[in-house]
Design goal:
two-stranded antiparallel sheet; 6 strands; elongated; 170 residues; 4-stranded antiparallel sheet; 19% strand; binds iron/sulfur cluster
């Protein structure tokens, strides 16, 4: 073993001595929580539209989106969350905020779950449920021209377009 390797522990000891004590006796002492600290995420149900962008970006699948004919359901299971904040970065409506909450131990698994249900709106022509109301409101805010056809499902819109084109061709 070289002299450099032999002296390495002493070098580390001197660095640690200079740094001093950097840990606290948690839970008896409060840990340092900076504004940048990332804890459990909070989803604002009044802003979420059920687009699923957060679930697509979530590395450990702590956020999952499922869709049935009637509704879109967003599930957040904090037990899988790695507190990376990707979901908040990609959410187009700013519905996700990152809280400082980190003391999440519980004996009830349900306390670790957040479930949001967005019911689908029905098409004014055929009555088929096709998109969440908030999603349609979001599109309307971005594309004002969409006002004319926003309440129609994609199939009815397509058929209307085909009819218009075929009438013009006659
Ligand atoms: S990205 Fe935002 S708006 Fe879309 S489902 Fe997630 S929380 Fe809701
Ligand atoms: S903070 Fe990261 S791991 Fe947790 S829900 Fe958001 S994207 Fe998923």
């Amino acid at each position: 073993m070289t002299l450099k390797k032999l002296l390495k522990p002493f070098k580390l000891l001197s660095i640690a001595k200079k740094a001093g004590v950097v840990t606290v006796l948690y839970p008896y002492q409060k840990p340092l929580i900076t504004p940048e600290f990332r804890g459990k995420i909070v989803i604002d149900s009044t802003k979420c539209m059920g687009c699923g962008a957060c679930a697509n970006a979530c590395p450990p699948n702590a956020l999952l989106i499922t869709e049935s004919n009637e509704a879109v359901i967003l599930n957040y299971f904090v037990g899988r969350c790695i507190f990376c904040g990707r979901c908040a970065d990609v959410c187009p409506t700013g519905a996700i905020s990152i809280s400082n909450e980190f003391e999440l131990a519980t004996t009830n698994l349900d306390n670790l779950k957040t479930i949001l249900v967005h019911r689908h709106r029905e098409c004014v022509n055929c009555g088929r449920p096709f998109a969440t109301g908030r999603m349609l409101e979001y599109v309307l805010r971005k594309v004002h021209m969409a006002k004319k056809y926003i309440n129609e499902c994609p199939d009815c819109r397509k058929n209307r377009f085909i009819n218009i084109v075929s009438i013009r061709k006659r």
